[in-house]
Write a structure and sequence with these properties.
By secondary structure, the protein is of the alpha+beta class. It has 13 helices and 24 strands. It has a seven-stranded mixed β-sheet, with helices on both faces.
């Protein structure tokens, strides 16, 4: 065939490090990470040295400029595999120098354009990412197909880095779409036309250890924004999605089993569009340990980052009546306490949820991804009558328990977090155990917990449906100012804060 080179090249310095003309037609593209924010000229100087014993067909520098170092007709020395280099166009991309070796947006945008150009000139109308080494190397591309490979499959290297590896499926999708539409795969402004972000499909070909490494920075960044321990959210991701390889993760980028309809469904900051969904069967565990299979609608996200953000927004904002469902989670630095808060709030039905999460955290040492205290802005807890009444403030505290003690000592005062959310109001006078019972109450919310005993320090058994119920005993307890009422049915106790008395 007649070989050509890309017209997108801005700089050329041909390297002596190559094996001459290919013995196989071009049907692969192999992106690499340089591990450095290099220039096209600097990369050319490096490949010009025979002592380097390496080269690539193209390079994309930190500013998105393309260099040509080995003509497409010739085999470069790039992938630690002569068989791969015989059939692949190899592309070195400027990257950060530390894991996950991220590319600048301009570099990724240019990579998409260059791959489109390579495919067009070589008669290909589809770019494939199969994700698995054995599947890929045993696959013989059809005449119109180009296939993506990675350096790590041929040597003990992380190349192209976990940042790019997580986007290989996205790259293939955007290039294929551009080949079909006749565009270059970008909008000419800020990058690719489709939503950028990590696709869970990238996890399918990774080991469990590599998945953990690839997502660590995402969860660390989330903690810096939300105050939720990265280790805890990562453990939930691993447990709920099977390291991002579950049906729901792969098809909907849903990493946490988030349903379309959730109890406490009124939180702010959701990244879900409110309509995209994925329907599947799922198992729910009852308090007696038995399981029930149901069909449910789950949220579909455009990328992994949106799933993480929505999950955190839910944990921070979901309510049980007028109170935060996961009160105390934000800013909690003890992963065991944080996990218990999530379980007590009713996140999961599994009876071993706490133990499972803690085991995952300890197995992978996930606390290494938690933001260090020195890196975390101080989350002051303010004690005021109302958030708007700043003049009433009694003090600001770094430690929540100290803020609660101050509020306890000042009737009419509450504790507010940095966002002005009331996270604690002291109990009023406890209800007398000898309250006039029995009496009827009306439950008007659909997500009121039934507890095994009178207080939030007792396990949740289930949610009580909306309706009228008989209370046969009243006791004071943690988490309720009006007291806890024991249901006549014997199934447990409910907070009277969220009930309306309908007689006597």
């Amino acid at each position: 065939m007649a070989y050509t080179n890309s017209p997108m090249v801005a700089y050329t310095k041909l390297s002596p490090n190559h094996s001459g003309q290919r013995t196989h037609s071009i049907d692969r593209i192999t992106p690499h990470c340089v591990v450095g924010q290099c220039t096209a000229e600097g990369l050319g100087e490096w490949f010009e040295k025979t002592s380097t014993k390496a080269s690539s067909n193209y390079g994309i520098d930190k500013d998105g400029r393309i260099g040509l170092y080995v003509e497409e007709k010739n085999r470069s020395w790039c992938s630690s595999s002569s068989a791969n280099d015989q059939r692949a166009i190899t592309i070195e991309c400027a990257s950060d120098t530390t894991e996950p070796y991220a590319f600048r947006d301009i570099v990724y945008q240019t990579l998409i354009k260059l791959c489109v150009d390579i495919c067009k000139r070589n008669g290909k109308n589809k770019l494939l990412w199969l994700g698995d080494k054995d599947k890929t190397l045993n696959y013989e591309p059809k005449s119109g197909e180009m296939i993506l490979t990675v350096h790590r499959w041929f040597a003990n290297k992380s190349c192209p880095g976990n940042w790019m590896f997580a986007r290989m499926g996205d790259l293939a999708e955007k290039v294929t779409a551009a080949l079909g539409s006749g565009t270059d795969g970008t909008d000419g402004k800020d990058g690719p036309t489709t939503t950028q972000g990590t696709q869970a499909s990238a996890f399918s070909g990774l080991s469990e250890a590599d998945v953990v490494k690839s997502v660590g920075t995402l969860f660390t960044a989330d903690q810096k924004k939300t105050g939720i321990l990265a280790s805890v959210s990562m453990a939930q991701f691993i447990l709920e999605s099977g390291y991002g390889k579950s049906e729901l993760a792969q098809n909907a980028n849903n990493l946490f089993g988030m349903k379309c309809s959730l109890s406490g469904n009124t939180w702010s900051g959701s990244t879900w569009d409110g309509k995209s969904k994925y329907t599947k069967q799922t198992k729910e565990q009852h308090t007696d340990g038995s399981y029930e299979t149901i069909t449910a609608d789950f949220r579909r996200y455009p990328c992994v980052e949106d799933s993480i953000a929505d999950h955190s927004a839910y944990l921070l904002g979901a309510k049980n009546g007028s109170k935060l469902r996961y009160e105390g989670l934000k800013g909690c630095t003890d992963y065991k306490k944080a996990v218990q808060i999530i379980k007590d709030g009713g996140y999961a039905t599994s009876l071993t949820y706490v133990e499972n999460l803690c085991s995952i955290i300890e197995r992978w040492n996930l606390t290494q991804y938690d933001v260090k205290e020195s890196e975390t802005p101080i989350a002051w807890y303010r004690v005021r009558k109302t958030w708007a009444d700043s003049k009433s403030q009694k003090g600001a505290f770094k430690i929540l328990e100290n803020a609660k003690k101050c509020a306890d000592a000042n009737p009419g005062y509450s504790v507010f977090d940095v966002d002005g959310v009331n996270i604690y109001t002291p109990k009023t006078t406890a209800p007398a155990a000898s309250a006039d019972v029995p009496f009827l109450v009306k439950v008007s919310i659909s997500d009121l917990n039934i507890r095994k005993g009178p207080g939030t320090d007792y396990d949740r058994t289930q949610f009580i449906p909306v309706g009228i119920y008989t209370i046969v005993e009243v006791k004071s307890g943690k988490g309720s100012t009006a007291g806890w009422g024991r249901l006549k049915s014997g199934v447990g106790w409910i907070s009277l804060d969220f009930c309306t008395r309908v007689n006597g």
